[in-house]
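Batch 3, record 17
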Amino acid sequence: MIPSLELEFRDRLGDEQVASDPLDLYVFGKDAGLVRGEPGLVVFPRDTADVATIMRLAGRHGVPVVPRGSGTGLAGGAVTTGPHVLLVTTRMNRIGGVDVENLCVWVQPGVINLDLSIHTTPFGLHYAPDPSSQSVCTIGGNVANNSGGPHCLAEGTTVNHVLAMEMVTPDGDIVTVGGPAPDPIGLDIRGLMVGSEGTLGIVTDVLVNLLPNPPASRTILLAFSEVQHAAATVSGIIANGLIPAALEMMDQPMTVAVERFANAGFPTEAAAVLIAEVTGHPSAVDAEAELVRRLATSHQATLIRIASDEAERKRIWLGRKSAFGAIAQMNPDYYLHDTVVPRTRLVEAIEQTYSISKRHDIPMLNVFHAGDGNLHPLMSFDGSLPGVMERVDAAGKDLIEMCVAIGGSLSGEHGIGMEKRDYMHLVFDEMDLDAQARIREALDPGGRLNPGKIVPQGSRCFDFGRPPPVGTWV
Amino acid sequence: MSWVTRHAPRADELSSCIQCGLCLPSCPTFRLTGLETASPRGRLTAMSAVAAGRPVDSRFEEIMGACLQCRACEVVCPSFVPFGRAMEGARAEIAAQTSGFTRRLRRLVTARLLRSRTAVRLGAVAASIAQSSRLDRLAPRRIRGSLAGMRSLKGRPPSIVGRTRAARGERRGVAALLAGCVMDAWFGDVHTATVELLAAAGWEVVSPRGQTCCGALAAHDGWADDTRKMASVNMAAFRGVDLVVVNSAGCGAHMKEYDHWADGGEELATRVADANDVVAEAIVDGRLPRLSASGDRVAVQDPCHLRHVQRITDQPREILAAAGLTVVEVDPNGGCCGAAGIYSLLEPDMSSRLGSSKAEQVQATGATLVASANPGCEIQLRSYLSELGHEARVAHPVELYWEALQRSERRGAVR
Amino acid sequence: MLRLRPSAAGGDLGVSLATSAREGSGLPAAAPETMEEAAGLMANLPAGGDRIRIRGGGSHRGIGYPVTSDVVISTSRLDRVVAWEPDDLTVVVEAGVLVAELEQMLASKGQTALLPEQPGTGTVGGAIATATSGWRRHRYGPIRDRVLELTLVSSDGRIVTAGGRVVKNVTGYDIPRLATGSLGAMGLIARVCLKLWPVPQASATVPVESPEEALEVAYRPLAALETREGAAVFLGGTREEVAGQAAALGAEPVPGLNWPSHPSGAVRFSVRTPPSSLRGIVDRLDPAWTYLAQFGVGEVTVAADEVGLGELDELRRRAESLGGALVMLDAPAAVVGAFDPWGTPPPSIEIQRRVVNLFDPGRRINRGILPGRI
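Prediction for the assembled complex:
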């Protein structure tokens, strides 16, 4: 099946656009997560027409297609579950003309997130979602996972910044959903596509919304001797009517690791470090920073430092964004987890995380998007040692179950992919999962796109009630 | 079949990569191709595949061969993967496990001829004749480009080897200058400038006999045993001096990693200093003067092995500013120009795309003076700038400072 | 056992004036008190009498194609506030809760769901089913951005929940977003969890000459609205910010948010365009019509007692050529028959049809109301 498909691909797309050597398949068999799965063939479309060709040819051969961007996903979303066609979007990396009047721009899925904001800097505009991997991850991957980042607290995640997209359906049809005007008529398929992890269509062009760069900002570094005090400060800030641009928290083990790596000037003796950033009108930020300072003081902050210049602000953010790097040298392997809990349950979630870490003897360092209750416990381990992977899996499962038990959800921004597919029943009952499967069935009835992701096997099971009356238009 | 030599990438080096992918955008070949297999992470994964039992086959050779060894990935790597080391190991395995005429020719050039001063001089003369007689037009395009970028041999000083220069002013110690292979044959003016400035900064300068090519090109091409021999020869030649000054970024980067290549190599490595570093220090200390501004603009190109390996970026700018020049940046990301040793000959397509885009970046600055502290980069820049029709002089920062110093001394205009 | 009662007074969600007039004369109606009751009721309707219309507060009854139905399900008794977690900035409410009452409750702790500011008798379910955003969307985004979790009751009796009660979530497909604006066609929207925002410390209304120019000066205000009576920029934030921004606008601010009232008339429609094209649309409106234009957003709501179909057609062509739409919100029967309420169906219409058919097998709820007569 694949050999003849490969010949057709080479014929239609050119040899440069196809890779099939076993070594290439091995190299493309993994993203930044833990799962491996080798594709049967790798293709590198240059434009929408190439993607449509790929979908049609693969469809004719009955071979599923799995999209992939830079391969920075952590949930196995871009790893194939069989010898499928891996469609790599990195060559679709054109940025269209910036519409400065309507604050939007069309970008292809292979454009790197940070490259987009660099591109729009001369216009005084930026693209709001800023995942910690923004220097690498692609807009297509961001759309697939509805990626957030530290600054999504006030500005929202990817879905809040996508106005329209062009997509290729499993049948190879090219369809545009959404548009430059507000509230396009009919169902919001554009919104559905965001976060669908490449299971409903291949996004080939995205109209993203750009925001004016805030005229002023203040970045405040806070430290606390108790995690509770930091959490209370977060709640206090929000209770006082302020949603800062970012509210990030790190626990002590993470702060120690970051400081060793990045020298950002974080106090390593603190139980929790909080970074708050307020942005906006020049007349707003000082008052808002003062509010944060006052609340932190009332919650016994041990350190309150407002960045005095851009260099200091950058250093604080470099420290925060190095959290991932800081853990990289501790052990050969890591597992960056991603769950969400209601913000008021943060302290409880942190305490339970520590006890799970202890129970399974897997070190966990914590970094949180505290403002929206998004936890990222980072497990550090050496997977080559006997029994360690089993303990990591067990700890991951406990973390998920704990978060769900206190009212949380499976993933805040990394997606379900393969990693959490089989935990979906923890938050959804059979009928909910059936509805998820119906979405899949509506857009990809043949299961041609990224099979084995998001929806657990056998979810589409409910068809109760009566059969539709004779003559009903279905 | 896996690895067969002791130079192979080590298991701990490969496992230090956590596959996060943060290196991807820093990699010039990934940027050009969009291929995971042309990215640092992909290359490490391919090495891991061989470590796990896959053969060193032609595809592996292609994947490894496409790497510039610019090492921009090491700067952004959160887990400090020694990528350059692993790549040299992979190249050593390829060299050991493959054969053929081209391979033998590559070894002959990088590991044998470069060790012979006579051979390099002869090559330089031959190239010069080819250039001036326009015989270079008969050469393949890839070689023609390099020839076009060469400095002319006319009026070049003789080899620096064996010469000494007494210190001026307060004596700092003995500094040995690496003569190098290509540097000694073509870049005598850079050597002269370096020697004079070192002396002016208080160093007694020597360039001992018995030294040889640093071995960088041999190491990059996988001739590990030859590399080790060259390292040992140089360790003996440079014994006893306080400082080993290198004015070619690639050579300095390699010598600072002699710990990989010779027993006791780390001792020599700690004495190696880039010429930019030593001269800039002397300027900061006040042992060399800051000259009044001329208003001329100079575009700075950072050689990868200066910026990413030696992590030297401020010093050439310090020197150029002290020379009275206005520094303009070419590329905030410090991307590779595509010269990369013999890469321009082995991977001409990739090299020329990078060379052209770098030349366009230089052209965009409008500067007609370009500073580069590495011979390969200089040749590449000159070649692609002339292809663009952009008239610009390319020179070493130390050379530009020395010229400015001489001019101002003649005018007696030292501030 | 749920009793079917004659239809009470009040409007119907997603039904044109023409049909609702007919229906006021006595279609059977029910107001289930729980989602389970609603499920049982809808799943057990007799064959031949099972076409369902859903009624909320009646404020959007004119949207979409006319619907023929056998029975009306009202959300009026699904009116509980299920959970309010002020510290988490979330609230879970049933669909029949009145927007005005919910906002009043939330305001008691300084919070808002950013629902329409002049809601009349509108319900939360109605606002979500019609995707009607508040005017503060210029600053905070449309209503879709705040539906965190949503429960649908399908006509075959399934109770389906998607999303979650957390402010950030990528767990499964975003059915809440899809159902927002679905006019009930995917199932009765029975319960939602909304993301809340704190009400800013201070607010002000600043009259301006040109809302476009004001938007160049003000940094992300709540709204920039224009009506026949004039234009104003609405500010919210700390006292310092509101004062500073008002000063930059160079006009005397009026404390508080003095929202205009909705334009009213026999015919109401909404024109949506890319923001920069809105002035071109507003300039083309008949001087006899009233309007409320949201600058920076790209929507103008227009009301008239008389419209020419040619005028409407031309406006629609212009809006559609810009990538926008002209949507009828309310119209007398004569207009409904002669002028398509939605205009050109979007390119994804077949995908939409498949989604709706899988969620509402047999297409029994508000059948044919959506673009493409889905």
